[in-house]
């Protein structure tokens, strides 16, 4: 599976697809010009390469301001991890290491 870049037009559809598969869903809010966002991206790429049962959606806050506002994003990178549609496992600003993400999700 690949990390899916989304914006306001396809966010809800891709989010629903992830939940319908029964996968944990990771939302990564970032900015194209943010170095720490790039570092978080490398950690998520590691997860993406090892696990097929995780949906990762990347949202560029500069291009999707409405989504960033809807989720209350004030700093990037911010990552939100959902176990399912009703259960948030993690909501954090800054870089989170791949091993820690795996532990949070319980993979």
Strand content: 25-35%
* Arithmetic mean of pLDDT: 94
- Bulk shape: globular
In the CATH hierarchy, what is the architecture at level 2?
Answer: 3-Layer(aba) Sandwich
- CATH hierarchy class name: Alpha Beta
Could you characterize what this model shows?
This protein has 107 residues and is α/β, with parallel strands linked by helices. It has a single domain (4-105), classed as Glutaredoxin (3-Layer(aba) Sandwich), CATH 3.40.30.10. It has 4 helices and 5 strands, in the order βαβαβαββα. The longest helix has 16 residues, at 35-50. The protein is globular and about 30 Å long. The two termini are 16 Å apart. The relative contact order is 0.24. The model has no long low-confidence stretch (mean pLDDT 94).
Name some characteristics of this structure:
107 residues; alpha/beta; Glutaredoxin; 4 helices; 5 strands; globular
Describe what is shown at a glance:
This protein has 107 residues and is of the alpha/beta class. It has helices spanning 11-20, 35-50, 65-70, 98-105, and strands at residues 4-6, 25-30, 55-60, 78-84, 87-93.
Task: Annotate the secondary structure layout.
Layout: E1 4-6, H1 11-20, E2 25-30, H2 35-50, E3 55-60, H3 65-70, E4 78-84, E5 87-93, H4 98-105
Parallel strand pairs: 1-3, 2-3
Antiparallel strand pairs: 2-4, 4-5
